[in-house]
Amino acid sequence: KPNDKQHTIIRPVKDNVIFGGRIRFENLTDIELGALLAALRLPDGCAHKLGMGKPLGLGSIQIDSQLYLVDRKARYTCWENVGFQSCDIEDFTNVFNQKMLAHARSSEETMDESKSGLQAIGRLQALFHLLRWQTRPQYSATASQQLEQFRARPVLPTPHKVVGQSEPLWQEDPPHPSQQETDL
What we know:
Helix content is 32%, strand content 7%. The chain has helices at 30-40, 72-77, 89-106, 122-130, 139-142, 147-152, 159-162, and strands at 48-49, 60-61, 67-70, 84-87.
């Protein structure tokens, strides 16, 4: 129907298609560059979610990145020098991760010291559960709910509950599912 605003026709991209692109930046500190790189490079087993059909697994992508920094002085003072060099991404993400972990500890954020890196921060651990791809939960645990199902459920389960892990010991009032709720 021409005036139908409820339905959308999509054309999914085939599996294993590779796209290329560049992100150019200027004047980023090491921490800011680390934040950008950490946002692009998710932990193993996680995928970015883009576009439509996310509950069906569509739009799950992996981003692989390489980092090249430009030395403008070297580039523009010599004809033979291209002025850029390949850099180790870990150098910048480690600076960002250490700053995030230090901030989380100083602000008494809920931490899980059994995990490493950003996954030790409770809220980010929940985010990474949502972005899991290789060990994702069954479709029935994450499927869109009908209105009647949604009305009957007082609180939606947390990401930890959906993947079958225990909740971190939250410092504040967390979004816990009710204790009466049994299985999904």
